[in-house]
């Protein structure tokens, strides 16, 4: 067939007879059997000792093809070993000269499946495969596929579009994996999006594949970073920032100094990585990070764009925000003001650099965002006053009560707090983390007091997936409160349902939460929620799927009609529907 002819075409160039030659010989001869014998002698394995062995194999019914094939396989193995050895021995120029000669001789046979591995092996060991050969490989889909990654890197580094085609599905997969974790049906305050350590995350399939594709090639590394920047700008998706940091640290783990030493963010990212591992920025590392920020020289401000992207990684923001909340609590105990704490000011400086990443890369104006004085002089003291309110209330509860009766928990929120959450990005981020903190402490009073401030926040941060993922996890600690009408009304009607119809992701998170806690919710409330959460025509598949799962669970909880009709006429609650009293 045509494929065969093409495959063996290279043999003629090398002066080796092929099937076409045999056909020609047989067509033009008078004694075919003699001609075949002659062809076998001329083109067989030239070893004198074989002259007698081959007829012996014939007697045993071993086909000549099988014999030649096994000799060939053996030789190919030897050749592959030899190529790998040549690549390591002698003077650099000499060994590459040998390999280039070998490539010249063998390349014409690259289409023969039996020879192809040898040709590929030679190319793999050449640091610079001749341009012409690379072009031929590129033009042929099957050859390109069969290439070693070492050869592909040489092709990619001058073909950004082709490299982009290879990287693009991996980036899509990465974002999908992140979203699957955020929307996972397993809700828990112990295990959440931020639980895996940085080391564990870097073992992920996408990071490992990209690391392998880049090798030690700075040009390819730069291309990937360029893709990540462009996608971050196009989508505002912060998971690209995580990948930026993970990729650098994955190369760091492998000690690829060729890349680490030229990435100006390397040491900063390494130090921050240690903080993320501990979920806290300690004083020593804080000094180190500050040194890097203060050390940005005139004329090198562009590095701030990269540093801001590293700080915009949700794992970095999470660490900075948790550290900020811990610092504020310490300051309450020490009676110190926020503006008197250099450590706290550094955390805020890094938070604003991270939160300003998109604007900085978009505008290409590389300077640190200005910190608003109000944030430090008004907002943080407000948060500290909430911490004080909690202490006071707890102490009051323990004091012997006088005639005046128990002191109620403060229920109003200062208007300034709500305004800060609406207008200031950093204030909003810290405010949300404070709310996560009190929820984790099972502080229902403080939670219900601050919840109304979440309905309108800076760029709807309270309805972002990361916050809702963490909030739903922490709410499982307050599961017993779901039996109370008042709690459910504040949480669902007052918060979640205000956004469900305009934000599909909120709809999903509420359904996730109910799938997990439906058995705790007061029955009447559950029924009204089931109506309110019914998917509309516009709802996506994920919402419909979750809603169906929930409906099935609720169906199972309902008493069967038989039970209902036979129930005694006395007004007793049915045992299958738990009420708060029966707990």
Automatic annotation (TrEMBL):
Biological process per Gene Ontology, one example term: negative regulation of transcription elongation by RNA polymerase II
Superkingdom of the organism of origin: Eukaryota
Pfam family of the protein (one): COBRA1
Region of interest called Disordered, as start-end residue ranges on this chain: 557-583
GO cellular component: NELF complex
InterPro entries the record matches: COBRA1
PANTHER family according to UniProt: NEGATIVE ELONGATION FACTOR B, NEGATIVE ELONGATION FACTOR COMPLEX MEMBER B
Entry protein name: NELFB factor
